[in-house]
Amino acid sequence: EEVEKLLQLKAQIADDVQPHKFVLKCPKGTRDYNPQQMAIREGVFNTIIKCFKRHGAETIDTPVFELKETLTGKYGEDSKLIYDLKDQGGELLSLRYDLTVPFARYLAMNKIANIKRYHIAKVYRRDNPAMTKGRFREFYQCDFDIAGQYDSMIPDAECVKIVAEILTSLDLGEYKIKVNHRKLLDGMFAACGVPDDKFRTICSTVDKLDKTFWEDVRAEMVDEKGLNPEAADRIGHYVKFQGGMESVELLLKDETIQKQKSAVEGLEDLKLLLVYCELYGIADKVMFDLSLARGLDYYTGVIYEAVLQGYTNKPSAKEEESVSVGSVAGGGRYDGLVGMFDPRGKMVPCVGVSIGIERVFSILEQRVLASNAKIRTTETEVFVVSAQKNLLEERMKLCKELWDADIKTEQSYKRNPKPLDQFQYCENNGIPLAVIIGQSEIQEGVVKLRVVATRKECVVPRNTMVEEIKKELAQLSRDT
Amino acid sequence: EEVEKLLQLKAQIADDVQPHKFVLKCPKGTRDYNPQQMAIREGVFNTIIKCFKRHGAETIDTPVFELKETLTGKYGEDSKLIYDLKDQGGELLSLRYDLTVPFARYLAMNKIANIKRYHIAKVYRRDNPAMTKGRFREFYQCDFDIAGQYDSMIPDAECVKIVAEILTSLDLGEYKIKVNHRKLLDGMFAACGVPDDKFRTICSTVDKLDKTFWEDVRAEMVDEKGLNPEAADRIGHYVKFQGGMESVELLLKDETIQKQKSAVEGLEDLKLLLVYCELYGIADKVMFDLSLARGLDYYTGVIYEAVLQGYTNKPSAKEEESVSVGSVAGGGRYDGLVGMFDPRGKMVPCVGVSIGIERVFSILEQRVLASNAKIRTTETEVFVVSAQKNLLEERMKLCKELWDADIKTEQSYKRNPKPLDQFQYCENNGIPLAVIIGQSEIQEGVVKLRVVATRKECVVPRNTMVEEIKKELAQLSRDT
Question: What is the ipTM of this complex?
Fold first, then answer.
């Protein structure tokens, strides 16, 4: 029989041996998650979802692709990074670039004027990947947004509070949440003499200040974007403003700024935001920073970004030392986006935050690697061990009983596994309990229970086995 | 100030009113999930994942797209349904068509010879959608697979057990799990005089027997696929074989079948499978059915499919009555697929099952609609109500305390919401408790607690509020 099996296998192999020219890889910029990574990911998601639910959020889901025209004109200079699907007849489709535009499309399409929702899903960008830094072409976004016509800064402050709660509970170390305001930026640009039609592109350039030095940013403004050098230098003066309420007050007294209505509105919003952050107990985490710009076109009000301390975004001589995973959350107010989808231009004001979860994964994965900690990837509680040969059917009956009692149970898939191999499997996989049967146990109507860690054994009657196991598992989980 | 706000709004609207030619829709064959649908989906996922974990499974994830060549040559006649991405420079990519081929690629790429994993994720098929029947172009698959060289039928029987556990716990009514074997089908085709090179295509046609009548299947075999009519009629004789162990025994005694070695091997496997199903307590759910074929090319051994009773797959005169969601799970053994990816053709035998979760969603959604039941889409426990004007800051302090104590809390995003509106919100959203503050409560250092359902109120000191709320919530959850 063995010979026949082997011959059969050989025949199958022969059938399949063609010249295999497969490139065995994931597409560029993407990765598989192995079970250890999934265990980390599950833990992070649970922490974040718990926070969203604590704030009363619902969740929705949207398709991974949208009509191409849904995404057109929403991402400014970044539109070139959108993945298009091949025209195979029918609609022209693109993979979603973020979760915000699909959310706005969903609100307009369903005429929803109020919702507080979170959405955790993958998005796609044909960007230059830097996978060790957690920058991928396929990556998770993890968004919380509040849509609705509400009073100034109340939902905005809650978004900032949520960022603080999540970063604190993920235990990523010290962090700061920088806040700024698009109206203040616009007013400041006007005050500095930037022409109206250059606001957005100059804003994109200012956004690079967290990744590079002022000299480079200035050069891009002047040389590439044609801004006159005096305007650039005036911008250079203002982007240094940062701090708490005192910085906001100081700017409000600046005579050039005072002349810009939109700048004053932005500063008044920021004052209110800082007051609310104080009430929410997070004033020490929040910092006004006029150099914060955020790249996306659609922001219209408050913007914010959380940065971990102890990581740097600036280019460093020792590239491998600087993990460059500083920014871990960001968001802001976008009151015009839903109106872009509504046939009558009806506005639904929105404010939201996106957690940079891939950077969080990277940090936690590196931490696990460094600590050499072993992560369990299964939750198996009991392994059914046969002490002798020819007990497969007895093992099956035991497994059935345990599964039916909702006890997480495994057994060997071999007819006659060696006892040592079975115990080894328990130890390798952190399974706490083994149920052992042999001929004598069957005759006496009992099973042997072994605590894998201590090898302590006891004999229990077969008909009270399930209760005894539940007691033992409860005891073990109290002990740890 | 109000006038200014309105003018401002008007200006914004004017800015945005362009000729909006957006088609506001999801791509053909896809859908959004609203919060109610997400709540149903979450419940179904939890039930299924709990079962997978009970059987000791790990989980992995793979990218939503693969290199095009990874999918090439795996799906037979269905390959035309694969979504390709546009060639934007770089690799040629396709959206995944199922989770099985990416799993096989993952095993070969990482040289994994043993794993028991589940994977729940969306897959993509450019099929003709039938959305009311739960057939989409973007849909979830929910797969459990056991890879490894093990003894005959032990992992296979566990897959069948898992299907039974899941369908029972989802409470979808009566069901049957049909089982068959690819080797038996091949042997039967050979016995009936089907030429070797027509096995796969005739198998695809037999697979339609659960959706249409024998006459149509026969016509396709003879007219489209060029099978001689006598062979078709012989197939017609055999595909009627169904039942339990006695049907398998009967076929084993059939002289034509006996001559086909592969048929006998298939029948021996099926006998063993039925014995194991008996030990797992699911014999009454499992039924041998020689007409079960399953479309995919890659199956090599046992195949199975679960069908709900009370639903029909057959075309019906009254289309709207027949919901046609009979088949809700399926799978089988595929020992050759991983070898197709390995440069040396090294085989990793696999067996798995896929839960047809979209059909499950459809059934449960329709059930909820029919019952008029209200599903909560948030888990909010407490709503902070202000009884008078100008208490926003007090509310914020209360919310902070409650959030920091991990109590799920909401408040109005208006500065001065009306008390009635706030209570209405609680009732509409099933929020069990309201915390009420007014000037007098603030002066006395207390808050009022109201049970929303009964309107029963009590006054508790501000400094023991959190404990009192936790007690009250525990009491309320015991009562329901």
Answer: 0.89
